Amino acid sequence: SGYITLDPGFKNTGATKSAITFLDGEEGVLRYRGYPIEQLAEKSTFIEVAYLLIYGELPSKEVLEKFRADIRKQMLIHEDMKNFFAGFPSKSHPMGQLSCLVGALSAFYPESLNPNPTDEEEDKTIINLLAKMPTIVSWIQKKSLGQPIVYPKNSLGYIENFLHMIFGEVTGETTFDPVVISAMHTLLILHADHEQNCSTSTVRIVGSSNANLYASISAGINALWGPLHGGANQAVIEMLEAIKNDGGDAEKYLAKAKDKNDPFRLMGFGHRVYKNFDPRAKIIKKACDDILEKLGVNDPVLDIAKRLEEAALNDQYFIDRKLYPNVDFYSGIIYRALGFESDMFTVLFALGRLPGWIAQWKEMRDNKEPIGRPRQVYVGETTRDYVESSKR
Ligand code: CMC
Description:
Blueprint: E1 21-24, E2 29-32, E3 35-36, H1 37-43, H2 46-55, H3 61-73, H4 81-87, H5 94-108, H6 119-145, H7 158-167, H8 178-191, H9 198-207, H10 213-225, H11 232-245, H12 250-258, H13 279-295, H14 300-313, H15 316-320, H16 328-338, H17 345-366
Antiparallel strand pairs: 1-2, 2-3
Helix pairs in contact: 1-8, 2-17, 3-6, 5-6, 5-10, 6-7, 6-17, 8-13, 8-17, 9-10, 9-17, 10-17, 11-14, 11-16, 13-16
């Protein structure tokens, strides 16, 4: 009732108070629970960051060991889940499969349906999600390749286990390049939370109806899928490939991006909040150079990306609108160097963002926030009388 403020896209509306992630778009600052992203990306591990985001503090050694062990024990998924996989066409998009399978987990863990879960029930769901998402992702990868699935190994760390299930063979030892492991930690940490973005707001709003955590995360995965959000990492590599196949003319695509009659946008550029630079992109660009060099990969699209970036940063259109490369601009080039197909990139983003979604859902529930229900300004017809179909 009364006066309603209109703010399409929530450009200027705060929906919640949050103590998880601090972001200063003018200064290019990003901190999780007060810790600068640069320090976490360099010194921490993905599971430690997950604990930090979800529970608020860096864990002691013992607590971290227990957290890791709890996750490791739950990495298997119910064999009946294979029936869901059987129904998907093998080339169907991994994000559709992921959201479906994560939602389906609730069917196997009915205690998650308790609208007021106990701390134990909630922790079990949290552990299950962190443990089973990498396994689900690996099943999706194996299905697309027509290969048998590879089961997790108790002796391996989280990232190692993931890589083992993704790239490992059914028999024989899998060896891991430390460069690849460290790159995966960095990438997942950089993606782990980003305050009230589209998918995170989706998770919070779905959870605000007391929907279960699996269902809320599944909704977040669908929100992330779009090319304006997490889907941008796949779109970037496809754009760079298109430029390469079209003679490598970056300027031509820059002109298309500026043309208001052309729906084309420079993928991996621009951000709702960062108006100076995206601190994650800064770290990723450097990591990209390092990793490609260490792995001895020479990807021609990296040169195109750099030329495109330089041209855009010197172009008045991009300067005026404060458009800079975002986290997605270079991440795909790294994922490709690590051996992932482009349609898996957004799934990797989802794996990274999972702890953030969980932390934000938990914060919303712990704070007993009311159900999310935006208002509107009605602009349709005023009252009119029904007309029989014969008279229309
Ligand atoms: N290429 C060309 N022009 C652009 C771009 C772009 N990538 N991004 C924004 N603009 C223009 C836009 O046309 C508008 O121009 P004008 O003022 O003349 O109408 C102005 O810049 C402001 O853009 P906006 O669309 O009002 O900004 P927004 O905050 O609503 O959108 C965005 C932010 C990220 C959706 C947008 O920049 C975009 O579409 N970028 C490309 C997709 C992308 O890389 N997404 C990943 C975002 S970061 C990670 C994540 O969220 O997953």
